[in-house]
Amino acid sequence: LSAARRGAERMGCAALLWGWLWLGCSWGPGSSGVAAAALSTAAYVLDDAGGLGRQFDGIGAISGGGATSRLLVNYEEPYRSQILDYLFKPNFGASLHILKVEIGGDGQSTDGTEPSHMHYENDENYFRGYEWWLMKEAKKRNPRIKLIGLPWTFPAWIGKGENWPYDYPDVTAYYIVSWILGAKQYHDLDIDYIGIWNERAFNSKYIKLLRYTLDKHGLQQVRIIASDRLWEPISFVLLLDSELHGMVDVIGAHYPGTKTVPNALLTKKKLWSSEDYSTFNDEVGAGCWARILNQNYVNGNMTSTIAWNLVASYYEELPFGRCGLMTAQEPWSGHYKVEAPIWITAHTTQFTQPGWSYLQVDGHLEGGGSFVALTDGLGNLTIIIETMTHNHSQCIRPPLPHFSVTPQRATFYLKGSFCMVETLQVWHSRLGFESGNSSLFQQLYPVKVWKGSFSLDLNVDEIYTLTTLKTGQKCGCPEPPPPQPFPSNYKDDFNIRNPPFSEAPNFADQTGVFEYFVNASDPGDHVFTLRQVVVQRPITWASDADQTISLIGNFRWVNMTVTCDIYIENQRDGGVFIAGRVDNGGIYVRQTKGVFFWVFADGTYRVTGDLAGEEILMKGLSGVRDNAWHTLTLNIQGTSASGLLNGYPLWENVTISKPSNGWAAIGTRSFEFAQFDNFHVE
């Protein structure tokens, strides 16, 4: 069997091994060199006669929190559709049941900012950003997928000057419900669940007002999740406040370490791990994901687990690079990578659906690892087994207490309505840490159930799915193009009359929002520009900078020339910059260093070594004024930098010690309107 199995793995996903396995045969890959007699053995009963466990609510992933899908939208076809198929298409790849998106609030939310549908109080636009598009693409592939919206940040007007969204709860509720109504009106999207404020305090008065506002607008079907933080204090408050208890449908905790708390169980609410994983998507990340997908239910009664993040489509050197289920960070080349967590997901998602129920089992394997069993109540049964070892399944958080897993034989007895099951389809993954050669989501021999039972020999770091369903598939697209670095000569004149998205390709906003703009009053070459549009500091989630900034390019760039036409709109105190060797972004944007060439509306210029403008390398007069176009050029070669204004040298021979490499960038002195055109980096 093992030789046939190895041959099948070499042949890839098309290979299918047929045969019957009988109780008494040692079945399963086993441990090479481990005699069957040496295996620990244990028996497990799967029975629905005494009732079922909790209802399963699905496996999902998050786009946002923030800007994690930024580069995905720029992929050309067919590659973009292939990536979306791997994520959402049923019985193809990850086959996700849930898509959770950020309700953009113009603030930094981990790897960038996402634009709000209402930058200002009198402003509504339901076509900004890419989450609307992504939800539609998910629904196109799986009409049954559940949609969740959650804010990380809010535009400034919500707080009326305060960095807090709850002082005017009616305003915040109106803002969130507008997003739900806009999803339906402009995109025919029905939002299923809505959250409160990601990983920040909840407010009982606001939650009640949100429920009231939803109901007033005919949105009774939209369920509320609270509080996307920890199990407490929300669980305790729900037990004290019966009115609030009736309005919250799901308690969502983040990174729970597969554990829950007594108060959460006492509420009798659905318990979800509403954000989890967040781990580099190599084999250890896949081991983390396999372990928590089972053990969140086995240890913590959680009926849904949602990964941050859906797809790593942001510059890898930003915080938490490659912490997605797959990687798609090169739209310029078309290259993407279907990482191991995609196929770990498939072990559950392709053989279950929201609405199925867990069986009442302990779920812990005697030799370490876990199993869950689910049924649709119509005779179908799916069993998912994982034997992840400690060092091969550590998630980024929380710390993982030590445990041991050993090779073992597990015998399962099928009772109740499952006593008539004769055959189970088998799907298998083995994460190859020592060999570096993993076998992912391979279909093996069906297993013959003999007199109501079957046995499996389980090695460590394996995942099995045994199921009555015959619909599983490991589909593969043709290999994507090979990886390529960001183009070393890149131009964008922003001359696009009807852009498919509100933001220019490859620019990654880190504070502020940079959008395509039609400058109707300009008679010349600057009708179509890129404009920074956030004019007040948003209600923040992270430490947004005091300046706005958008990154682009290759983090490894050393020598570069950046040129851009700029237009300061703020009189007197306005200012803009172009920059190179920019070394930071995301939640660390305030610490950003680089070479920054600033010009200001008062006719001065500065060269600084940081975004904050505190490390001044050179300053002087430029003659630049507001409401006029000027061309800035920044040239960095080795340890020296120089700058041109409108093609003429303005400063030169500024010594640069560090950083030694980084992105190019554009931005503004403060939260202010400013325009950019004819960007060029070489």
UniProtKB/TrEMBL annotation:
Catalytic activity: beta-D-galactosyl-(1<->1)-sphing-4-enine + H2O = sphing-4-enine + D-galactose; a D-galactosylceramide + H2O = an N-acyl-sphingoid base + D-galactose
GO biological process, one term: galactosylceramide catabolic process
SUPFAM superfamilies on file: (Trans)glycosidases
Record gene name: Galc
PANTHER family for this protein: GALACTOCEREBROSIDASE
Entry EC number(s): 3.2.1.46
Signal peptide residues on this chain, from the entry's feature table: 1-32
Name this protein carries in UniProt: Galactocerebrosidase
Main location: other
Top EC group: hydrolase
